[in-house]
Amino acid sequence: MRIGLVGVGRIGAFHARTLSEVDGVDEIVLADADPERARVVAKELDLQAAPDPDDLIGSELDGLVIASPTQTHAALLRAGVAAGIPTFCEKPVAGTLSDTIELARELQDSAVPVHIGFQRRFDTGYRRIREAVRSGELGWLHSIRANTHDQDPPPAGYIQTSGGIFRDCNVHDFDILRFVTGHEVVSAYATGANKGEPFFAEYGDVDTGAAILTLDDDTLVFVSSTRYNGGGHDVRFEAMGDKGAMAVGLDSSFPLTSAEEGVDFPSGPQHWSFMERFLPAYRAELTAFTQVARGEIPSPCTVADALQAFRIAEACELSRHEGRPVRLDEVDDL
What we know:
Layout: E1 2-6, H1 10-19, E2 27-31, H2 35-45, E3 48-49, H3 53-57, E4 63-66, H4 73-82, E5 87-90, H5 97-107, E6 114-117, H6 124-135, E7 141-149, H7 156-162, H8 165-168, H9 171-181, E8 185-193, H10 199-202, E9 208-215, E10 220-226, E11 234-241, E12 245-248, H11 274-277, H12 279-293, H13 303-322, E13 326-327
Parallel strand pairs: 1-2, 1-4, 2-3, 4-5, 5-6, 7-10
Antiparallel strand pairs: 7-11, 8-9, 8-13, 9-10, 11-12
Helix pairs in contact: 5-13, 6-9, 9-13
């Protein structure tokens, strides 16, 4: 397979390395808005570079991976689909809800497969808890806790265009919540605070967020996020039912230490970034994309799925700004 990849920043270069280890990928060609950067990364990884993204998309490709900045996603996704190329796109598919809805409408009847990058769907822990929830092993759920706690904040320039902590960070929790439970969120009540760098407040964002979600079966979901978790990168999902309870992320890398005497769990080492934490999931995700591109499986995460996660994030942001619960039917949909 000949795979084109647009965007060679941190996640793009990471995906290029990962793709080079995927069976069946014979050739990887990189492109970036900065041609020199594409050439440098291609040389480092012993790959090829195209003059620019348009040239890459206009060439013979079996699949296209979009890992460029958010504001470029929609145009590149449209271009890939128009060229008939199976396309993988990092979240989000667009920078705003209205643009995401417009894109979802355009592509809903397309025969060209599109796979959106929510890598937690490929993590073995999340897949196991999905099985336990959907099989009834845990009984009926009364509570779910989901959190994404980054060890260090991204730079100010990233926060300026990120869309806010719920759209950028917790959107992964919102997607995996739907994936695990098979249920939809009907309401959200969210808040946030700033105790770190002043640029969060300057850009209308928060460095720590929390939300209470209600699912359509009345399960309560407690969501949290922060850019400052000194203990390490902490991503967890806890499902509690009347017959049992199960957690993802409760392992030796668990970034909390016990205050109880004689307890030596966890043994460590901690994870310090999402790429370290989810490396196997990223490999599985891009392997799945090659299967999508070959027509062997349907897309495991569609633009419509990405839209629903974005709608939950939108409801949380609206709730945070207005200080009230927000029903999801207040947020535009297809």
